[in-house]
Amino acid sequence: MLTILALASVILLGIVPQQSEAIVIYTGWERHALVGSDIRLSCSFFSWRWTSDDVTFSWSYRADGARDSISVFHYTGGAPYVDNKGPFRDRLEFVGNPGRRDGSILLKNLDYGDNGTFTCDAKNPPDIVGRTSSVRLLVFDKVPIQAGVITGAIIGAVLGLLVLIVVIYYLMRFLVARRVFNLSVSKHGKKGKGKEGSQQRQVPVLSIGDPSKLKATVSEKKKQESRKDKK
């Protein structure tokens, strides 16, 4: 009985179509290029499923100032198709690898009129539900410095200035401490010398007295000693 129920559940699961899951598509945010150059616009996706043989990629383009988008490229059934009436009919090439979930295209010989937004859509059946992703193309005579580079330079300059201020602060503290130490040492040295001088000045000087009186005293002592000897 259990075997029959298991077989029936397997058959039912095989008949019921698989539910689709969300697919996540990735492109760049903004690309800069020079007039007359070529540029690669990347498009890839994430899906929980294995890459299907029926995977598809679609690119559309909306020029700056335009309201509507036009289809410029489509990949399906293992073959790429370029729109033969659009502005990129002779200048667009498929350089992706669908087996690796890569739907990138190459735009050649760029001009100012190519400025606009390119949108990529991908399907990996049964995962067909997902939000498209867009990248903006800006064509210049000279590629400008990006805002990130300027921001990084400003941050680097500020950090360098802060480091310099800290170094100067600690250097000044060291010099002040050294100056104070030298002054204290010199003051203690002067005080020590002053005490030694005062001590030397305070040493009593023994007075020898009058030499004539000293001789008289000595002669008097000799007389007394001679008298004692006679007795």
From TrEMBL:
<dbReference type="InterPro" id="IPR007110">
    <property type="entry name" value="Ig-like_dom"/>
</dbReference>
<feature type="region of interest" description="Disordered">
    <location>
        <begin position="187"/>
        <end position="231"/>
    </location>
</feature>
<feature type="transmembrane region" description="Helical">
    <location>
        <begin position="145"/>
        <end position="171"/>
    </location>
</feature>
<keyword id="KW-0325">Glycoprotein</keyword>
<dbReference type="InterPro" id="IPR013106">
    <property type="entry name" value="Ig_V-set"/>
</dbReference>
<keyword id="KW-0812">Transmembrane</keyword>
<keyword id="KW-0472">Membrane</keyword>
<keyword id="KW-1015">Disulfide bond</keyword>
<keyword id="KW-0732">Signal</keyword>
<feature type="signal peptide">
    <location>
        <begin position="1"/>
        <end position="22"/>
    </location>
</feature>
<dbReference type="InterPro" id="IPR003599">
    <property type="entry name" value="Ig_sub"/>
</dbReference>
<feature type="compositionally biased region" description="Basic and acidic residues">
    <location>
        <begin position="218"/>
        <end position="231"/>
    </location>
</feature>
<dbReference type="InterPro" id="IPR000920">
    <property type="entry name" value="Myelin_P0-rel"/>
</dbReference>
<dbReference type="InterPro" id="IPR013783">
    <property type="entry name" value="Ig-like_fold"/>
</dbReference>
<keyword id="KW-1133">Transmembrane helix</keyword>
<protein>
    <recommendedName>
        <fullName>Ig-like domain-containing protein</fullName>
    </recommendedName>
</protein>
<keyword id="KW-0393">Immunoglobulin domain</keyword>
<comment type="similarity">
    <text>Belongs to the myelin P0 protein family.</text>
</comment>
<dbReference type="InterPro" id="IPR036179">
    <property type="entry name" value="Ig-like_dom_sf"/>
</dbReference>
<dbReference type="GO" id="GO:0005886">
    <property type="term" value="C:plasma membrane"/>
</dbReference>
<feature type="domain" description="Ig-like">
    <location>
        <begin position="17"/>
        <end position="136"/>
    </location>
</feature>
<dbReference type="GO" id="GO:0042552">
    <property type="term" value="P:myelination"/>
</dbReference>
<dbReference type="Pfam" id="PF07686">
    <property type="entry name" value="V-set"/>
</dbReference>
